[in-house]
Design goal:
3-stranded antiparallel beta sheet, 16 strands, 5-stranded antiparallel beta sheet, alpha+beta, 17 helices
Length: about 675
């Protein structure tokens, strides 16, 4: 695409401004409505200026209504996800990385705007979408001049000063026009403006983008920024128009552009003027009651009452024949109050009911709450859909720019949908093969979450659930990384599934909290449990009965760092005891100063007195009796009764009898 000069840019902008003058006039009127400028209907012909001296009332309803819509838009729950579409886990991991990239770049764009003293992207685009209608922003991944590192630039533009053009391929160009002082221009673009321009004098700056280049110009001067390739595969501008009404042509209405991409005020512009007029009349008549008109009757007819006639406790002296009378005040007509209520109801139907602000004078039924919710949704949902379309455009632009490989890897951070914090560097290769991102905004209403949880529970009930659990996580609860959720759930089941795991978790928690006594008790329970398990395995012929705490595993040594009873880095250090999960902490299972003295047993809190407890290093099933009881085993008693020395025992055979039996002379 050929480069464009300053004159061509300015001509494009001026031509588009003439074509959209009605739309931009509406932008200005809506801004006046939001800022609560005086807003009364025009005076009827022949009565112009009659109400100039009357008190004026301006309802704040348009402003509070717009602020409510902006607040809901800003607080809506953000869901960035790629629906699961593959059974291969590595493909799902690529999609998960792309989701994290999207969350991270949006956080980076917000951080940049905050550092510049501006609202976040969501705040700005929610405001423009509500007050103006269209949402327009520059979306770029740019390089820093000092080190070439990449940063994310999402800068919202005011639609009033933004101009654009489309062709059959989409957005062809966009220009943002702004007035800046000489000092602002020189500081931002690093140029020196000549021609005797004052420091506070302003020039109109045109920041122009097409499909390939970006240039910044001012009228009748050298470009502030020469035509430069911006690095985006298309115009780096995201433009979204609010509402569902397309551009309309009419033979009776000449300014149909005025009603394209409407703001939130589309239904209350005229009715707000009428409401202000009625309230102004009521305000003026109420104010007149403070000092009602009077007549002063005197002999000459020229006497004037003293000042402060209506002050509290004022005493006024009157001569004979003088009299003060109060004239009857003007009042609202009989139907005026009812008419004001009707106009107020029209404002509520065109914006939000008062109950949306918490003004409920009585308890509502469930049906009434549902109907109220539907009325609110019809107002907020179109604004949320506009924001969703904008973010989809912006994220596609950022991804398409990043995967070109023209930028250094970006380190992103943030909190994912599962409330898990992440911080990592993601390269273009990590997300190049990922599927298209889906961006969704959900209004913050607790009933929605409760309904989703109830539905998820219902779908997962029974021996044969209606749908797989992964489908429930992905489609019903709309979780981002279902693989991560499955791993976390399995880890939780692992902690609760085995008694040994529960004991070790208790022991580990006690150690972390500094409860040494409690930790020692659970350490002893672990040792007892492991000893019982060794006996069971030995009886079943598994592992040859080798004790687990010695590190044997399936007839062989454990792998490095994985054995039971071995520390992560190998065998325990000298002076440290050996437990089923590795060496115990210092002072647990061993004496406070090291191994116990010879002949002393070992208990959960350290060495025991002589003759008590276990010998260190042996399981109870293999220890000698002297180690268990503290005394040698008793001698084996002889069989049969005791007799005096030299006398044969009853029933004993003599030496002669044994010799004769050996010779076969007598039977055995």
């Amino acid at each position: 695409m050929a480069k464009i000069n300053a004159k061509d840019i300015i001509d494009k902008v001026e031509r588009h401004e003439r074509d959209t003058v009605a739309l931009r006039s509406r932008f200005e009127d809506d801004w006046a409505l939001y800022t609560l400028e005086e807003n009364l209907p025009p005076d009827p012909p022949g009565h112009e200026g009659e109400n100039e001296d009357f008190r004026k009332h301006t309802t704040p309803d348009p402003q509070t209504y717009a602020d409510k819509i902006v607040s809901w838009s800003v607080m809506a729950q953000q869901i960035i996800r790629i629906p699961e579409h593959s059974e291969e886990r590595h493909k799902r991991e690529i999609d998960n990385l792309k989701e994290l990239f999207a969350i991270g770049v949006l956080n980076a764009a917000d951080e940049r705007l905050i550092n510049l003293g501006l609202p976040t992207v969501r705040d700005s685009v929610s405001f423009f979408g509500a007050i103006r209608g269209p949402i327009i922003a520059r979306v770029l991944i740019a390089k820093r001049l000092k080190d070439g590192s990449s940063y994310v630039d999402i800068t919202p533009f005011d639609p009033l000063y933004t101009y654009w053009g489309y062709d059959n391929e989409g957005l062809a160009w966009c220009c943002y026009k702004s007035d800046k002082t000489k000092l602002e221009i020189e500081g931002e673009y690093g140029v020196k403006l000549s021609g005797g321009m004052e420091d506070d004098e302003k020039e109109t700056v045109y920041n122009y983008y097409d499909r390939e280049h970006n240039t910044v110009v001012i009228e009748d001067r050298e470009p502030l920024k020469k035509s430069t390739v911006h690095g985006s595969p298309r115009v780096p501008i995201a433009i979204v128009f609010a509402g569902s009404a397309p551009p309309i042509q009419s033979t009776k209405v000449s300014d149909t552009d005025r009603h394209y991409s409407e703001s939130v005020f589309k239904s209350i512009r005229e009715v707000s003027q009428n409401y202000n007029l009625l309230m102004s009349i009521a305000l003026e008549l109420s104010a007149r009651a403070r000092k009602p008109p009077i007549t002063y009757t005197s002999e000459s007819g020229e006497k004037v009452p003293e000042a402060g006639l209506f002050e509290t406790g004022k005493v006024t002296s009157l001569a004979a024949g003088e009299k003060i009378d109060k004239l009857e005040l003007l009042e609202l007509t009989r139907d005026a109050t009812a008419f004001i209520a009707l106009v107020s109801g029209e404002i509520q139907r065109g914006s939000l009911p008062y109950s949306a602000y918490g003004e409920i004078a009585f308890q509502l039924s469930g049906y009434a709450i549902t109907q109220l919710r539907q009325g609110i949704d019809s107002v907020i949902q179109p604004r949320l859909r506009t924001l969703e379309n904008f973010y989809k455009q912006a994220l596609r632009l950022l991804v398409d720019q990043y995967v070109t490989g023209a930028f250094k890897p970006i380190e992103v951070s943030g909190e994912d949908r599962n409330r898990k914090w992440f911080s990592r560097e993601i390269t273009p290769e990590d997300i190049k093969e990922g599927c298209d991102l889906n961006f969704k905004l959900v209004g913050e209403l607790p009933s929605d979450d409760q309904a989703k949880v109830a539905m998820a529970k219902m779908l997962d009930e029974g021996e044969v659930p209606l749908v797989p659990r992964r489908y429930i996580w992905d489609e019903v609860l709309e979780m981002q990384n279902t693989d991560q959720m499955a791993d976390m759930l399995k880890e939780q089941m692992a902690e609760r599934g085995a008694p040994l795991a529960q004991l070790y978790n208790m022991f580990d928690a006690a150690v972390r909290q500094g409860r040494e006594t409690m930790a020692a008790i659970y350490w002893d329970e672990i040792q007892v449990f492991m000893a019982q398990k060794e006996m069971e395995l030995a009886q079943l012929g598994i592992r040859g009965g080798a004790p687990l705490r010695n590190g044997a595993q399936n007839g062989g040594p454990p792998q490095p760092g994985m054995g039971m009873g071995m520390g992560p880095g190998g065998p325990p250090q000298p002076g440290m005891g050996m437990g089923p999960m590795g060496p115990p902490p210092p002072g647990m299972g061993m004496g406070p100063m090291g191994p116990p003295p010879p002949g002393m047993g070992m208990g959960p809190m350290g060495p025991l007195p002589p003759g008590m407890g276990m010998a260190p290093g042996f399981a109870p099933q293999v220890q000698p009796n002297i180690a268990l009881t503290g005394a040698p085993p008793p001698p084996t008693p002889q069989g049969g009764p005791l007799v005096p020395p030299g006398q044969p025992r009853p029933g004993a055979q003599s030496e002669d009898a044994r010799r004769l039996m050996a010779m076969g002379l007598i039977p055995a």
